[in-house]
Amino acid sequence: MAGIMTGTWVKGWVGTTDSDSSMVHWKQQTLSGNRYFDAGEYAKALSYYQQALWLARQQFSFWHDADEAVAALVVAHHNLADLLIAMTLPDRAADLLCHIHDCLLATSQSPACPSPLRAAALRHTRSTHTELIAFVRKHGTQDAIQRCLGQCLCHAEPAHQLH
Fold this sequence. Notes:
Helix content is 72%, strand content 0%. It has helices at residues 4-11, 21-38, 42-59, 66-86, 90-109, 115-139, 143-150.
C-alpha cells in the first residue's frame, strides 16, 4: 500500500513550470517526502509533507493558476493522509481527508473567493470525494467521513444561464 496514492497524486504536478518559486519549493518538499515515504522512513516523510502542506496553505489564494493552487493543497492533504494511514493513524487521516473536502466545498461556495478559485475548488471536490469513499472501503466508516459523504454538491453546481 505504501506509495500507491503518493505516486498518483504527485505525478501530474512534477512537470509544472518552475517560474513560481513557491511551487518549486512545494514540489521539492513533496518529492522529498515521497522518497522517504517509499523508503519507509515515515518520520522524515512527515516533516517534508507537513512543510509541503504549509506551503500550499500559505500560497492557496495567491498562486496565479487557481487550478494548480487547489491541486497542490489537495495533493498535500492526500499525501499526508496516506502517510498517517501507513503510520497506523487512520483516525487522523480521516480527519485530514474530511478537512480538505470541507475546505474545497467552502471555497467553492464563498463569494469572497475569486471565481477561478471557486471553480477549481468545485472541480477538485470530485477527487476528495473519491478519496473519502476509498478510505471507507479500506478502513471502514467513521462519523466524520459519513458527514462529508452525506453533503450534496448539487446546490454548489453553477447554474447554466440562457442567453
